[in-house]
Design brief:
It is a single chain. The protein is an alpha/beta fold and about 425 residues long. Helix content is about 45%, strand content about 15%. The chain is built from 17 helices and eleven strands. It has a seven-stranded mixed β-sheet. A four-stranded mixed β-sheet has the order 2-1-3-4. Strand 1 and strand 2 form a beta hairpin. The longest helix is centred in the last third of the chain and has 19 residues. It starts with a helix and ends in an 18-residue tail after the last strand.
Protein backbone atom coordinates (compact mmCIF):
# COMPACT_ATOMS: atom_id res chain seq x y z
CA UNK A 1 0.00 0.00 0.00
CA UNK A 2 1.38 3.33 -1.11
CA UNK A 3 0.78 5.64 1.83
CA UNK A 4 4.22 7.01 2.78
CA UNK A 5 3.30 10.58 1.84
CA UNK A 6 0.14 10.56 3.96
CA UNK A 7 1.98 9.15 6.96
CA UNK A 8 4.85 11.57 6.50
CA UNK A 9 2.49 14.54 6.24
CA UNK A 10 0.66 13.55 9.43
CA UNK A 11 3.90 13.07 11.37
CA UNK A 12 5.38 16.36 10.14
CA UNK A 13 2.27 18.29 11.11
CA UNK A 14 2.30 16.62 14.51
CA UNK A 15 5.95 17.55 14.93
CA UNK A 16 5.59 21.14 13.73
CA UNK A 17 2.26 21.84 15.36
CA UNK A 18 0.92 23.41 12.17
CA UNK A 19 -0.54 22.36 8.80
CA UNK A 20 2.10 21.49 6.25
CA UNK A 21 1.93 24.21 3.54
CA UNK A 22 3.34 22.02 0.76
CA UNK A 23 2.30 18.85 -1.00
CA UNK A 24 4.45 15.81 -0.24
CA UNK A 25 5.45 13.24 -2.85
CA UNK A 26 7.16 10.22 -1.28
CA UNK A 27 9.53 7.56 -2.58
CA UNK A 28 6.67 5.10 -3.10
CA UNK A 29 4.89 7.45 -5.52
CA UNK A 30 2.20 8.51 -3.03
CA UNK A 31 1.20 12.15 -2.57
CA UNK A 32 -0.53 14.05 0.20
CA UNK A 33 -1.28 17.66 0.98
CA UNK A 34 -3.05 20.62 -0.63
CA UNK A 35 -3.46 19.80 -4.34
CA UNK A 36 -2.59 23.30 -5.59
CA UNK A 37 0.46 23.72 -3.37
CA UNK A 38 4.11 23.41 -4.44
CA UNK A 39 5.44 19.85 -4.26
CA UNK A 40 8.29 18.76 -1.98
CA UNK A 41 9.67 15.45 -3.25
CA UNK A 42 11.12 13.06 -0.64
CA UNK A 43 12.98 10.71 -2.96
CA UNK A 44 14.08 8.10 -0.42
CA UNK A 45 14.10 7.19 3.26
CA UNK A 46 17.66 8.50 3.55
CA UNK A 47 16.25 12.03 3.48
CA UNK A 48 14.42 11.28 6.74
CA UNK A 49 17.56 9.88 8.34
CA UNK A 50 19.43 13.05 7.44
CA UNK A 51 16.74 15.16 9.09
CA UNK A 52 16.61 12.99 12.18
CA UNK A 53 20.35 12.96 12.71
CA UNK A 54 20.69 16.69 12.04
CA UNK A 55 17.31 18.37 12.64
CA UNK A 56 16.82 21.78 11.10
CA UNK A 57 18.52 23.62 8.29
CA UNK A 58 21.70 21.57 7.94
CA UNK A 59 19.83 18.27 7.74
CA UNK A 60 17.54 19.63 5.04
CA UNK A 61 20.53 21.08 3.20
CA UNK A 62 22.33 17.74 3.25
CA UNK A 63 19.25 16.01 1.86
CA UNK A 64 18.95 18.63 -0.89
CA UNK A 65 22.64 18.57 -1.87
CA UNK A 66 22.68 14.75 -1.94
CA UNK A 67 19.57 14.68 -4.14
CA UNK A 68 17.45 12.93 -1.50
CA UNK A 69 15.10 15.91 -1.34
CA UNK A 70 13.98 18.00 -4.29
CA UNK A 71 11.17 20.18 -5.58
CA UNK A 72 8.73 19.65 -8.41
CA UNK A 73 7.79 23.06 -9.75
CA UNK A 74 8.58 26.51 -8.42
CA UNK A 75 11.56 26.34 -6.04
CA UNK A 76 10.87 29.87 -4.79
CA UNK A 77 7.31 28.92 -3.80
CA UNK A 78 8.49 25.94 -1.75
CA UNK A 79 11.23 27.93 -0.04
CA UNK A 80 8.85 30.77 0.70
CA UNK A 81 6.25 28.65 2.45
CA UNK A 82 8.78 26.45 4.21
CA UNK A 83 10.78 29.40 5.49
CA UNK A 84 8.06 30.54 7.86
CA UNK A 85 7.67 27.04 9.23
CA UNK A 86 11.29 25.95 9.54
CA UNK A 87 13.63 28.92 9.43
CA UNK A 88 11.68 31.95 10.59
CA UNK A 89 10.10 31.03 13.87
CA UNK A 90 12.13 33.78 15.44
CA UNK A 91 14.44 34.03 18.40
CA UNK A 92 11.77 32.71 20.75
CA UNK A 93 11.36 29.38 18.95
CA UNK A 94 11.55 26.31 21.17
CA UNK A 95 14.78 24.37 21.19
CA UNK A 96 14.63 20.70 20.19
CA UNK A 97 15.13 19.64 23.82
CA UNK A 98 12.19 21.79 24.91
CA UNK A 99 10.04 20.50 22.06
CA UNK A 100 10.71 16.86 22.99
CA UNK A 101 9.06 17.42 26.37
CA UNK A 102 5.78 17.43 24.46
CA UNK A 103 4.43 13.83 24.23
CA UNK A 104 2.94 14.52 20.77
CA UNK A 105 6.30 15.71 19.47
CA UNK A 106 8.07 12.65 20.90
CA UNK A 107 5.49 10.39 19.30
CA UNK A 108 5.97 12.12 15.93
CA UNK A 109 9.75 11.76 16.14
CA UNK A 110 9.49 8.06 16.89
CA UNK A 111 7.08 7.69 13.99
CA UNK A 112 9.64 9.28 11.68
CA UNK A 113 12.36 7.02 13.09
CA UNK A 114 10.32 3.96 12.21
CA UNK A 115 9.69 5.28 8.67
CA UNK A 116 13.35 6.20 8.14
CA UNK A 117 14.63 2.63 8.33
CA UNK A 118 18.15 1.67 9.47
CA UNK A 119 19.30 4.14 12.13
CA UNK A 120 22.87 4.69 10.91
CA UNK A 121 23.57 8.34 9.97
CA UNK A 122 24.21 8.90 6.24
CA UNK A 123 27.60 10.40 5.38
CA UNK A 124 27.46 14.13 4.57
CA UNK A 125 27.70 15.02 0.87
CA UNK A 126 31.28 15.45 -0.32
CA UNK A 127 30.62 19.13 -1.05
CA UNK A 128 30.32 19.85 2.67
CA UNK A 129 33.20 21.62 4.40
CA UNK A 130 34.17 20.18 7.75
CA UNK A 131 33.51 22.52 10.66
CA UNK A 132 36.41 24.66 11.81
CA UNK A 133 37.03 27.43 14.31
CA UNK A 134 36.23 30.91 13.00
CA UNK A 135 39.63 32.42 13.68
CA UNK A 136 40.01 34.18 10.32
CA UNK A 137 43.74 33.68 10.11
CA UNK A 138 45.37 34.26 6.75
CA UNK A 139 45.60 30.50 6.25
CA UNK A 140 41.96 29.72 7.08
CA UNK A 141 40.70 32.67 5.06
CA UNK A 142 42.71 31.47 2.06
CA UNK A 143 41.17 27.99 2.38
CA UNK A 144 37.66 29.42 2.72
CA UNK A 145 38.04 31.63 -0.34
CA UNK A 146 39.42 28.74 -2.34
CA UNK A 147 36.41 26.57 -1.43
CA UNK A 148 33.99 29.23 -2.60
CA UNK A 149 35.69 30.64 -5.68
CA UNK A 150 38.02 27.96 -7.02
CA UNK A 151 35.23 25.80 -8.43
CA UNK A 152 35.89 26.65 -12.06
CA UNK A 153 35.68 29.94 -13.91
CA UNK A 154 33.54 28.27 -16.59
CA UNK A 155 30.90 27.52 -13.96
CA UNK A 156 30.85 31.13 -12.79
CA UNK A 157 30.54 32.30 -16.40
CA UNK A 158 27.27 30.37 -16.60
CA UNK A 159 25.89 31.89 -13.40
CA UNK A 160 27.18 35.46 -13.61
CA UNK A 161 27.06 36.02 -17.34
CA UNK A 162 29.57 38.08 -19.35
CA UNK A 163 30.01 40.77 -16.69
CA UNK A 164 31.60 38.29 -14.23
CA UNK A 165 30.54 40.50 -11.32
CA UNK A 166 29.64 38.55 -8.18
CA UNK A 167 27.78 41.23 -6.24
CA UNK A 168 24.42 42.88 -6.68
CA UNK A 169 23.73 44.81 -9.86
CA UNK A 170 22.11 48.26 -10.00
CA UNK A 171 18.73 48.12 -11.72
CA UNK A 172 16.58 50.80 -13.36
CA UNK A 173 13.17 49.32 -12.63
CA UNK A 174 11.60 47.38 -9.71
CA UNK A 175 10.91 44.35 -11.91
CA UNK A 176 14.40 44.27 -13.39
CA UNK A 177 12.99 44.60 -16.91
CA UNK A 178 14.74 47.89 -17.71
CA UNK A 179 17.85 46.23 -19.13
CA UNK A 180 20.11 43.22 -19.12
CA UNK A 181 22.09 41.88 -16.18
CA UNK A 182 25.23 43.11 -17.90
CA UNK A 183 23.77 46.64 -18.18
CA UNK A 184 22.85 46.64 -14.49
CA UNK A 185 26.29 45.39 -13.44
CA UNK A 186 28.00 48.04 -15.54
CA UNK A 187 25.79 50.65 -13.87
CA UNK A 188 26.80 49.33 -10.43
CA UNK A 189 30.48 49.60 -11.24
CA UNK A 190 29.86 53.13 -12.49
CA UNK A 191 28.02 53.98 -9.28
CA UNK A 192 31.00 52.82 -7.21
CA UNK A 193 33.41 54.80 -9.37
CA UNK A 194 31.35 57.99 -9.07
CA UNK A 195 31.04 57.65 -5.31
CA UNK A 196 34.82 57.30 -5.12
CA UNK A 197 35.18 60.30 -7.45
CA UNK A 198 37.72 58.48 -9.59
CA UNK A 199 39.84 60.65 -11.88
CA UNK A 200 42.74 60.01 -14.29
CA UNK A 201 46.02 59.40 -12.54
CA UNK A 202 44.53 58.22 -9.24
CA UNK A 203 45.53 54.94 -7.56
CA UNK A 204 42.69 52.58 -6.66
CA UNK A 205 42.99 49.51 -4.43
CA UNK A 206 40.26 46.98 -5.20
CA UNK A 207 40.06 44.64 -2.19
CA UNK A 208 38.62 41.26 -3.15
CA UNK A 209 38.87 42.08 -6.85
CA UNK A 210 37.17 38.90 -8.05
CA UNK A 211 37.51 38.36 -11.80
CA UNK A 212 38.74 41.90 -12.37
CA UNK A 213 35.56 43.65 -13.47
CA UNK A 214 35.83 46.69 -11.18
CA UNK A 215 39.54 47.09 -11.89
CA UNK A 216 38.96 46.97 -15.65
CA UNK A 217 36.01 49.37 -15.49
CA UNK A 218 37.94 51.88 -13.37
CA UNK A 219 41.06 51.80 -15.53
CA UNK A 220 39.25 51.85 -18.88
CA UNK A 221 36.50 54.36 -18.08
CA UNK A 222 38.22 56.63 -15.54
CA UNK A 223 41.92 56.38 -16.38
CA UNK A 224 43.06 55.25 -12.92
CA UNK A 225 45.81 52.82 -11.97
CA UNK A 226 44.48 49.81 -10.07
CA UNK A 227 45.87 47.18 -7.75
CA UNK A 228 43.40 44.31 -7.32
CA UNK A 229 43.93 41.70 -4.61
CA UNK A 230 42.26 38.31 -4.22
CA UNK A 231 43.03 35.07 -2.39
CA UNK A 232 41.71 32.96 -5.27
CA UNK A 233 44.28 31.64 -7.73
CA UNK A 234 41.59 30.93 -10.31
CA UNK A 235 40.12 34.41 -10.06
CA UNK A 236 43.54 36.02 -10.40
CA UNK A 237 44.43 34.00 -13.51
CA UNK A 238 41.10 34.86 -15.13
CA UNK A 239 41.38 38.55 -14.21
CA UNK A 240 44.93 38.83 -15.58
CA UNK A 241 43.80 37.30 -18.87
CA UNK A 242 40.96 39.82 -19.14
CA UNK A 243 43.29 42.69 -18.30
CA UNK A 244 45.69 41.61 -21.04
CA UNK A 245 42.88 41.28 -23.57
CA UNK A 246 41.75 44.82 -22.72
CA UNK A 247 45.29 46.13 -23.20
CA UNK A 248 45.40 47.46 -19.64
CA UNK A 249 48.43 45.65 -18.20
CA UNK A 250 50.21 48.99 -17.78
CA UNK A 251 47.45 50.25 -15.49
CA UNK A 252 46.17 47.16 -13.64
CA UNK A 253 48.07 44.78 -11.37
CA UNK A 254 46.24 41.69 -10.09
CA UNK A 255 47.79 40.06 -7.01
CA UNK A 256 47.09 36.89 -5.08
CA UNK A 257 47.48 38.63 -1.76
CA UNK A 258 45.75 39.05 1.58
CA UNK A 259 44.60 42.62 2.12
CA UNK A 260 46.50 42.54 5.42
CA UNK A 261 49.73 42.16 3.45
CA UNK A 262 49.23 45.21 1.22
CA UNK A 263 51.93 47.73 2.20
CA UNK A 264 52.36 49.98 -0.84
CA UNK A 265 49.95 52.72 0.12
CA UNK A 266 48.80 55.37 0.19
CA UNK A 267 45.97 54.94 -2.30
CA UNK A 268 43.62 57.67 -3.47
CA UNK A 269 40.59 55.37 -3.17
CA UNK A 270 39.65 51.87 -2.06
CA UNK A 271 36.75 49.73 -3.28
CA UNK A 272 35.72 46.71 -1.24
CA UNK A 273 32.76 45.08 -2.98
CA UNK A 274 31.31 41.93 -1.45
CA UNK A 275 34.51 41.15 0.42
CA UNK A 276 33.91 42.28 4.01
CA UNK A 277 31.50 39.39 4.63
CA UNK A 278 34.61 37.16 4.72
CA UNK A 279 36.45 39.23 7.33
CA UNK A 280 34.69 38.00 10.49
CA UNK A 281 33.30 40.02 13.37
CA UNK A 282 36.42 39.64 15.50
CA UNK A 283 38.59 40.99 12.69
CA UNK A 284 36.36 43.73 11.35
CA UNK A 285 37.92 46.61 13.27
CA UNK A 286 41.35 45.38 12.14
CA UNK A 287 40.04 45.37 8.55
CA UNK A 288 38.75 48.92 8.89
CA UNK A 289 42.00 50.16 10.42
CA UNK A 290 44.11 48.48 7.73
CA UNK A 291 42.10 50.15 4.96
CA UNK A 292 42.23 53.50 6.78
CA UNK A 293 46.04 53.24 6.93
CA UNK A 294 46.24 52.48 3.20
CA UNK A 295 44.31 55.63 2.20
CA UNK A 296 45.84 59.04 1.77
CA UNK A 297 44.22 61.91 3.74
CA UNK A 298 41.05 62.84 1.89
CA UNK A 299 40.85 59.41 0.25
CA UNK A 300 37.55 57.56 0.00
CA UNK A 301 36.48 54.01 0.81
CA UNK A 302 33.43 52.40 -0.75
CA UNK A 303 32.45 49.36 1.32
CA UNK A 304 29.71 47.24 -0.33
CA UNK A 305 28.57 44.58 2.14
CA UNK A 306 25.67 42.25 2.93
CA UNK A 307 24.23 42.86 6.38
CA UNK A 308 21.83 41.01 8.64
CA UNK A 309 19.13 42.32 10.93
CA UNK A 310 20.28 43.00 14.51
CA UNK A 311 19.25 40.59 17.25
CA UNK A 312 17.94 41.50 20.66
CA UNK A 313 20.82 39.48 22.07
CA UNK A 314 23.79 39.80 19.72
CA UNK A 315 25.76 37.21 21.67
CA UNK A 316 23.22 34.61 20.53
CA UNK A 317 24.03 35.14 16.84
CA UNK A 318 25.19 31.98 15.10
CA UNK A 319 26.58 31.60 11.61
CA UNK A 320 24.09 30.06 9.20
CA UNK A 321 24.80 26.31 9.11
CA UNK A 322 24.04 25.77 5.42
CA UNK A 323 26.05 28.79 4.28
CA UNK A 324 28.96 27.85 6.53
CA UNK A 325 29.07 24.23 5.43
CA UNK A 326 28.46 24.62 1.71
CA UNK A 327 28.83 28.19 0.48
CA UNK A 328 30.95 30.67 2.44
CA UNK A 329 32.96 28.80 5.08
CA UNK A 330 33.67 31.17 7.98
CA UNK A 331 31.55 33.93 6.43
CA UNK A 332 29.79 36.24 8.89
CA UNK A 333 27.15 38.91 8.48
CA UNK A 334 26.92 41.97 10.71
CA UNK A 335 24.19 44.60 11.14
CA UNK A 336 24.86 47.81 9.22
CA UNK A 337 25.09 49.73 12.50
CA UNK A 338 28.03 47.62 13.59
CA UNK A 339 29.78 48.15 10.26
CA UNK A 340 29.39 51.92 10.47
CA UNK A 341 30.58 51.97 14.08
CA UNK A 342 33.72 49.98 13.25
CA UNK A 343 34.57 52.27 10.34
CA UNK A 344 34.15 55.32 12.56
CA UNK A 345 36.21 53.77 15.35
CA UNK A 346 39.00 53.17 12.81
CA UNK A 347 39.04 56.89 12.04
CA UNK A 348 36.77 57.15 8.98
CA UNK A 349 34.09 59.78 8.56
CA UNK A 350 31.02 57.95 7.20
CA UNK A 351 29.37 60.22 4.64
CA UNK A 352 26.69 58.10 3.04
CA UNK A 353 24.88 54.78 3.47
CA UNK A 354 22.73 53.45 0.63
CA UNK A 355 20.68 50.28 0.78
CA UNK A 356 20.56 48.18 -2.39
CA UNK A 357 18.49 45.37 -0.87
CA UNK A 358 15.93 45.08 -3.66
CA UNK A 359 18.68 45.26 -6.28
CA UNK A 360 20.29 42.11 -4.89
CA UNK A 361 17.03 40.17 -4.99
CA UNK A 362 16.64 41.01 -8.68
CA UNK A 363 20.27 40.06 -9.36
CA UNK A 364 19.99 36.69 -7.62
CA UNK A 365 16.89 35.76 -9.59
CA UNK A 366 18.83 36.45 -12.80
CA UNK A 367 21.70 34.25 -11.59
CA UNK A 368 19.30 31.41 -10.75
CA UNK A 369 17.71 31.74 -14.19
CA UNK A 370 21.17 31.56 -15.81
CA UNK A 371 22.02 28.42 -13.84
CA UNK A 372 18.72 26.68 -14.59
CA UNK A 373 18.93 27.56 -18.30
CA UNK A 374 22.29 25.77 -18.64
CA UNK A 375 21.85 23.15 -15.91
CA UNK A 376 23.39 20.10 -17.66
CA UNK A 377 26.53 22.08 -18.49
CA UNK A 378 26.77 23.48 -14.95
CA UNK A 379 26.56 19.96 -13.52
CA UNK A 380 29.22 18.76 -15.94
CA UNK A 381 31.59 21.57 -14.96
CA UNK A 382 31.24 21.00 -11.21
CA UNK A 383 29.11 18.21 -9.73
CA UNK A 384 25.38 17.60 -9.27
CA UNK A 385 25.75 18.41 -5.58
CA UNK A 386 27.65 21.64 -6.16
CA UNK A 387 25.12 22.83 -8.73
CA UNK A 388 22.29 22.06 -6.30
CA UNK A 389 24.12 24.06 -3.60
CA UNK A 390 24.22 27.16 -5.78
CA UNK A 391 20.61 26.84 -6.91
CA UNK A 392 19.34 26.52 -3.34
CA UNK A 393 21.67 29.19 -1.96
CA UNK A 394 20.83 31.80 -4.58
CA UNK A 395 17.09 31.17 -4.61
CA UNK A 396 16.86 31.26 -0.80
CA UNK A 397 19.02 34.40 -0.72
CA UNK A 398 16.76 36.13 -3.25
CA UNK A 399 13.78 35.52 -0.97
CA UNK A 400 15.76 36.67 2.07
CA UNK A 401 16.48 40.00 0.40
CA UNK A 402 12.89 40.35 -0.81
CA UNK A 403 11.49 39.67 2.67
CA UNK A 404 13.95 42.08 4.36
CA UNK A 405 15.63 39.32 6.34
CA UNK A 406 19.00 40.48 5.08
CA UNK A 407 20.14 43.59 3.25
CA UNK A 408 23.12 45.00 1.37
CA UNK A 409 24.57 48.45 1.81
CA UNK A 410 27.12 50.70 0.21
CA UNK A 411 28.92 52.74 2.87
CA UNK A 412 30.96 55.68 1.60
CA UNK A 413 33.61 56.78 4.09
CA UNK A 414 36.41 59.34 3.95
CA UNK A 415 39.77 59.56 5.66
CA UNK A 416 39.01 63.17 6.47
CA UNK A 417 42.18 65.15 7.26
CA UNK A 418 42.67 67.25 10.38
CA UNK A 419 41.59 70.35 8.48
CA UNK A 420 38.09 68.85 8.24
CA UNK A 421 38.04 69.23 4.46
CA UNK A 422 36.32 66.05 3.28
CA UNK A 423 36.23 66.85 -0.42
CA UNK A 424 32.62 65.71 -0.53
CA UNK A 425 29.95 67.62 -2.47
CA UNK A 426 27.43 69.51 -0.38
CA UNK A 427 24.65 67.53 -2.03
CA UNK A 428 25.89 64.06 -1.31
CA UNK A 429 23.89 62.09 -3.89
CA UNK A 430 25.29 63.98 -6.88
CA UNK A 431 26.81 60.74 -8.24
CA UNK A 432 23.38 59.68 -9.42
Amino acid sequence: MQDAALRLKALMEQLLGAPLPVRIRAWDGSEAGPPESPVLVVRNRRALRRLLWKPGELGMARAWVAGDLTVDGDLYAVLDVMAELVWERGEDARTLREALRDPDVRAAVWGLVRMAGPPLPPAPPREEVRRRSHLHTKRTDRRAISHHYDVGNDFYEIVLGPSMVYSCAYWDSPDGQGGTLEDAQRDKLGLVARKLDLKPGMRLLDVGCGWGSMAIHAAREYGVSVVGVTLSQEQAAYARKRVAEEGLTDRIEIRVQDYRDVTDGPYDAISSIGMAEHVGSDRYLEYARDLFALLKPGGRLLNHQIGRRPRRDETAYEIDEFIDAYVFPDGELAPIGGTVSSLETAGFEVRDVESLREHYALTLRRWVANLEADWPNAVRLTSPGRARVWRLYMAASALAFERNRIGVNQVLAVRTPDTGTSGMPLRARSWR
